[in-house]
Amino acid sequence: MATADKPKYKVIGTRPVRHDGVDKVTGRAQYGADVRLNGMLYAATLRSPHAQARIKRIDTSKAEQAKGVRAVVTGADFPDQGDRVVELGEGSVNMRHLSANVMARDKVLYVGHALAAVAADTIHDAEEALQLIEVEYEVLPPVMHVMDGMRDEVILNDDVRTDYMGEKSDAPTNIAKRFLFEVGDLEQGFAEADVIVEREFDTATVHQGYIEPHNATVLWNADDKITVWLSTQGTFTVRQQTAELLRMPVSSVKVVPMEIGGGFGGKISVYLPPVAAVLSRKSGRPVKSVMSRADVFAATGPTPGSRMRVKLGATRDGKLTAGEAWIAFEAGGYPGSPVGPACMCVFSCYDLPNGKVEGFDVCVNKPRSNAYRAPGSTHVAMATETLVDEICRQIEMDPAEFRLKNAAKEGVRRVDGPVYGRIGMAETVEAIRDSEHYRSPLEGAHRGRGIATGFWFNAGLKSAVTATVNADGTVSLVEGSTDIGGSRTGIAMQLAETLGIAAEDVTPTVADTDSVGYTDVTGGSRVTFATGIAAIEAAKDIRGQMVERAAQLWEVETNQVRYEDGQFIGPAQSVGFKELAQQLHATSGPIVGHGTSSEAAQSGAFGTHCVDVEVDEETGKVQILRYTVAQDVGTAIHPSYVEGQMQGGAVQGIGWALNEEYWYDEQGRLHNPTFLDYRIPTCYDVPMIETLIVEVPDPSHPYGVRGVGEVPICPPPAAIANAIYAAVGVRMDVLPMSPPRLFAKLQDRS
Fold this sequence. Notes:
Elements: H1 21-26, E1 41-47, E2 53-59, H2 61-64, E3 69-74, E4 85-87, E5 92-94, H3 95-102, E6 107-108, E7 114-120, H4 123-130, E8 134-139, H5 146-150, E9 163-164, E10 167-168, E11 175-183, H6 186-191, E12 195-203, E13 215-220, E14 226-230, H7 235-246, E15 253-257, H8 273-283, E16 287-290, H9 293-299, E17 306-314, E18 320-332, H10 339-345, E19 355-363, H11 377-395, H12 399-406, H13 425-433, H14 436-439, E20 447-456, E21 463-469, E22 475-479, H15 487-499, E23 506-510, H16 527-554, E24 562-564, E25 567-569, E26 574-576, H17 577-581, E27 592-597, E28 605-616, E29 621-632, H18 639-658, E30 689-694, H19 716-728, E31 734-735, H20 739-749
Helix pairs in contact: 10-11, 11-19, 12-13, 15-16, 18-19
């Protein structure tokens, strides 16, 4: 589905074979764990068995003398950070907390918290040496739920104070930050409502579920230069975090990106590089560290659990009048949950004249939380979209028509302040409303249909690329955005479109931090947008230089040559890009184009989902029968990749909705740290996800691109909850809506 005035492109909108495809399918692609260096040692990490405890003593002397051991480190081997906050490209962090999360100092704050590491000749030697490290703990009571954390009966961090409106509280607390956004007159808005609905929601801790574990191989060279090889979503943020944690200049750290087996926000923070670096310095050898699956679950950042109270008011004719949200997120052991983005997203799909949103970032004894695909938005979409469905049933209005009547549009002000530019919220609802899926009958007992809408604001941030014209007319493109979902090809296609050449004539390379300009993380749905702009700028630079070279060859003035539709046209002749490139040796040297992007910002993206379910009332199991995703992508650069993102995000949202959660006991021990017990969806759990690509171009991008990767995870839990209600008449207010929980609700109903 597209806008009527969509421009005609030659490359954009086609489906070329991805540039890294052959290496991926033949197994030649090199991932982080594939790194092999001469003299390499293997690292293993000792992790806390307690959710909260003071470290009274660590004795590593026996481990240091063990077979094959070359180095041992503890928190004492890392420099003091002081109380300093550093911006890391996609959010800021207190370096004291980041350092303590990498390697505990005086206290462990979750089961799995690292507190020592060993480098040895073999991984078996390293793991055996861990057993010789003696640790004496003073075990403290754990705080395992956000509401317990807010009571401040047990304080996790003595240095945490509540940050509210730029002021900090006096006493230590677990509430690291409080957000407040308001618009209009809330009391008057609810007074104008004919229908008011209010519910409380709980969501569990959920992991991103990437297949490849965290890894890092580090060489601290004799010249005090550090090289890091790893799978990451951002080489430059790894460089900065590693340098800051070791109190070294960033110029002393080079990060080499390997292929990445999934991240979804979970591979931005560092865990292993600083530890492997110190082990390398101590041993004089390169050190590799690869997490086990259990360590990934227990010790890296999942998305947080939450408690939310949301209230909505509407008139009998279906107009929203007011909304109020109270949102508390578990930050984990240290501050930094995505409650801020949650506050920004909770009412973002609607034109809400009166609203109030309050959010809290709360420390609990779980791993420090990280982003997970539209961090915070899925939580709040579950709440808001459930209430919207409830209002629709009370006033007997079609849920698609209600959303259209209240849809956010250009010029609407969000509760948190920004005013929308050109957006496609309504267009995604129309796509679902007019779809064959939504218009088809749904027959059978215990079957129901639900819809929901989601939003992500998308980021711009900074990117840089360089591009070199080769003698055969191809172009070598060097970029700094690590490729998670096919961005190499998406960026290459934008450069090719701008130059008037084929996508196959561009060879993209993701380079290390010494070989390309600063580029922010692959996250925030920013890469195809921002790195795409940088590539377009580099292509324009190349075009300008080639116009000058054509003028030299034809012995005319530069202003007599123009570029048009892949041709360089002079007063008496014209030549294609490839033909001109082959003549460049006769001019004044190579052509290298440069491009950056730092000012452009996106206006956000929306998606609306429709799902049919069947509920087994005897077990509480939910079967997905049919699923359709409609999403505004601005302009689909490579439609196959766009469809893949829409489908992948929807499947992750389905897992979040129905099965996925961390199971902790009262002592804070995680009981399902494997994919056997932490159940993500398989092909047996979901049907083919149908996709409807909506294209409402974003005017801040030359080709109208909007980020695609994050929006599709937002609507699924709410859409499924609404479908469950339609099927069996019970409202689910806890995620996941697992069979035991749904069965209990069904029993309560009867």
